[in-house]
Amino acid sequence: MQIETPYLMFLGDVPDRLAAKTAYGIKDWRPEWCVGQLRLPGCAADLGIPDLTLAEAVQKGCRTMVIGVANAGGVLPEHWIAQVVAALDAGLDIASGLHARLGAVPAIAEAAERNGRQLHDVRHTAETFATGKGTKRPGRRLLSVGTDCSVGKKYTVLALEKGMRERGFDADFRATGQTGVFISGRGVAIDAVVADFISGAVEWIAPAAAPDHWDLLEGQGSLFHPSFAGVSLGLLHGAQADAFVVCHEPTRTTMRGVQHPLPTIQQVIDLTIQLGSLTNPDIRPVGIAVNTQDLEEGAARALLADLARTHDLPATDPVRFGVEGIVDRIVAEFPPAVTGASA
């Protein structure tokens, strides 16, 4: 799909920042595409870009209104429909990463048709996938895994893509969620793939490649999350990961949306190796990525130093402090397979 830029970011009336993580991800990694935001009364998220009316957004050149939210079940709230219809009537296309299909809402479908506008359901793909085979394929792959959902798995691999490329690696971010697809322009929202084909879809996203090429796969959910572990496991098997980074948010005590306690980082490492070895017996951790935005710098650095000592792995906040230590570990653990290769 070809989504026209620039964007008006629609946040609705989401209750917190995490509920608008799609919008934040696009704004953080593609700020030049985000002209303004449209929020309803009660919205608790703020991208820090101008609040615009639909008329103002069109006047400033916006082409598409992006529904930049991620909620449980990926539903489109009933009271948002009138705003989506108004955006179509104002001349904007609509793009959504929700599970709910825009065209399945009669009022939205009718408004798109009468205005000649496009509806983009980023979470859904026209591709068909085979079941995963788990057959060894060339190329190298890194997967971000988490103690919970929404802990920074996407930001970690995007930061690694930048850091590894700066060090001479042939490395590409591979999107497995709706926000990543918005950012990269390609990929598959794995949580919208029929369960039998999840691992096969991941094999399609990160196919056989040159021996020293790295595909950096965005993780989803957590192997310990009762809602999303099935997606996480299919992603792990399909990735056939050589390396993984554990992502963590240190202020939580229970996983998002449920009452289950957070697993420890060591539990995540152990289970990822145990389950990931089905398709890659040599899978290994290369770092810990911690979202420290709610910690003062001194406390953040102390926590990272403690985690590094405890797990004998580089620990960092990829956004706040960079990924140099993790890239150093990758260099040490995975020498070039091709003589004369960079990195």
UniProtKB/TrEMBL annotation:
Q: Which residue ranges traverse the bilayer?
A: none
What Pfam families does the database record attribute to this sequence? Answer: DUF1611, DUF1611_N
Residue ranges constituting the D-glutamate N-acetyltransferase-like C-terminal domain according to the UniProt record: 129-327
Residues forming the D-glutamate N-acetyltransferase-like N-terminal domain are 42-124
Q: What is this protein called?
A: NAD-dependent epimerase/dehydratase family protein
